[in-house]
Specification:
Structural class: alpha/beta
Oligomer: single chain
Strand content: 15-25%
Number of strands: 3
Order of helices and strands: HEHEHHE
Distance between the termini: 49 Å
Number of helices: 4
Helix content: 40-55%
Length: about 80
């Protein structure tokens, strides 16, 4: 194993942005814990989920607790907030 050069890292990151997302939607309804919401964002990003629907009293970004757990995934995964 060897350390990647900055050019190689940029190439890998740009190829990840072009990944197609699966036609699967995640519905998060009435999740109290903002850390769990952040975890859902991170998991959805890794699984290639198309969109997250945050329903009921589920917390919505931007929130520090969500951002801390999501590790930036709340910026890359499309989401929509709905009442029900």
């Amino acid at each position: 194993m060897r350390k990647l050069t900055p050019e190689e890292l940029k190439k890998r990151q740009s190829s990840r942005k072009r990944c197609r997302r699966l036609p699967v939607y995640l519905i998060c309804e009435n999740i109290r814990s903002l850390w769990n919401v952040g975890s859902m964002f991170r998991s959805a990003d890794g699984a290639g989920i198309a969109k997250i629907f945050l329903c009921g009293y589920t917390g919505r970004p931007p929130r520090p607790e969500i951002s801390k757990t999501a590790l930036g995934a709340e910026e890359s995964v499309p989401w929509e907030g709905m009442e029900d």
